[in-house]
Amino acid sequence: MSENTETKPKQGKHGRSSVIDSFVSQYERYYSLSVLIAIVSVVTILIIAADECRTCFNRLEDVTQVTTSDGYKTFWVYGKNVESGYLKHVFIILNRLGYKNDPNATDWDLLWAHDYPFRKLYPQLNHLRPHQKVNHFPGCGYITNKVDLAVSRLKYIPPAFKLPQDKDDFLKYANSHPNISFVQKNNDHRNIKIRPVKEIDLNSEGTFVQEFVDKPLLVSGHKFDIGIYTIITSIDPLRVYVYNGDALLRFCPVKYYPFDPQNLDKYVVGDDYLPIWEVPALDYYYNELGFGMRESLNAFLRAKGKTPKKIWDQIEDAIRILILNKEPKILDVVSKFKSKRNFFELIRIDFVVDEDLNVFLLEANMSPNLSSAHFPPNQLLYEQVLYNAMGLLGLGERIRKDTLAVRSHSEEEMMVSEKNLVTYPNECNSALCKSGCASSICQLCRPCLSADTLQYLKDAYKEHLNRGDCKRIFPPSQLNPGAEVNWEDYSAENQLQYRWFLGKCQLDATWC
């Protein structure tokens, strides 16, 4: 019995040991599994947290993009005596559009140059970032130089002769047209006066003589000129707009007849011109009915049985011809800079109209007067011109941020994506276009569009959306899609862009 008594405890101890060993083994196994599950859970939580954190930081980055500085885009001004206030309205509009003037900024968005900037500032302006804009094109003097413009022999420009180089041709022309009067001018547009041929200084450097339009259209007896604000947004491909909300009308202070060539106030529009609100025939339209200068003139002409559309059609044609003619020379200068896309041009082109409503282009002003100090009522015109031009150019963006730079691909696609650019669906689905890009139409199919072409089309698309009261005159309107186009008159880039506008017109009449 003692043997049994002694052996039973041994067996119990061994049994308990086995149970414990089994429990420990299971515990270790489940513990390892628990640890593994815990680790996976922690990692999962960390991944989720990291993703949330990344989203948080992305949102923070988006906010930072708007608020990294004081929230303003920056511009600076290049010109003489800017503090005198002649750019007051430029400053006002830019401030309203969210800009501040910071001449010390390195990553500025806009340079507004009253004087031609590309000689003195070439080192800075040759390495511009994509978002930086300058309000002149290098080489714009080919349009605005008064001597070169006058002697360009283009349609709508009265015949002119550069002195002293063309004096023999001038004398020959004058002898064959004895009833024509001439004025002698220089590039400063000063000392304009009708002179007999024998009194013209034929050896005066930097001057020219030009045929005088001696039967001008008169309003209340006064001769006047018409100033058209013109915006060039791109060169090669060329895009040109005019401000279509109004025009600047300036009247000679003294009635034209009886004519006296010694009295310049009868035929030369000077700084002290007669404003439209003091012209009796236009007074009621402008002052009482509230029409602008352009529509006041239109109403006056219609009341006289005339068709004002004849004037505006000629003006648009004259601007197209002028800028297309000068584009190759401007492009030659622009090609010396890193990019063509940093520049634009706001000029005023002046015209005179004769009694038969024929239009004559007289001059183009590189930095037109935008100060209302002399004529305060002109403030509205100048500010509307600036506001619409800056909207067209993308300088007055709808997106609130402190730079013109595009911060992300999604931001750019929100404004314009490839689906907004594609045209000619049937042609691009043809065997011809599927097999290659040789055809002029196929070049506009998505597989054939180069990165450079895509960027220019994006710019054109955004201008169309932002044009406000600006009217595109080149490429011209496609209101008559069947009209014949002289493609040989245009460069390859201009042909491609023109065809793109035609394609957009086929899809959407608002592009016509």
N/C terminus separation: 119 Å
Rg value: 35 Å
Report the structural category. Answer: alpha+beta
The number of helical elements comes to 15
Q: Secondary-structure element order, as H and E? A: HEHEEHEHHEHEEEEEEEHHHEEHHHHHEH
Mean pLDDT: 88
Topology, number of strands: 15
Helix content: 40-55%
The best one-word shape is: globular
Q: What are the segments in which pLDDT stays under 50 over at least 5 consecutive residues?
A: 1-20, 42-69
Q: What portion of residues belong to β-strands?
A: 15-25%
Sheet with the most strands, sense and barrel status: 7 strands, antiparallel
Protein described:
This protein starts with a helix and ends in a 5-residue tail after the last helix. Helix 2 links the parallel strand 1 (73-78) and strand 2. Residues 1-20 and 42-69 have low confidence and may be disordered. It has 15 helices and 15 strands. It has helices at residues 2-67, 88-96, 122-125, 141-144, 146-150, 167-176, 280-288, 293-303, 309-334, 379-392, 409-415, 425-428, 431-435, 451-466, 492-507; strands at 73-78, 99-101, 110-113, 133-134, 160-163, 182-186, 193-195, 207-211, 218-219, 222-234, 239-243, 248-251, 345-353, 359-365, 470-474. The strands form three sheets. Strands 9, 10, 11, 12, 13, 14 and 15 form a seven-stranded antiparallel sheet that branches. The protein is globular.
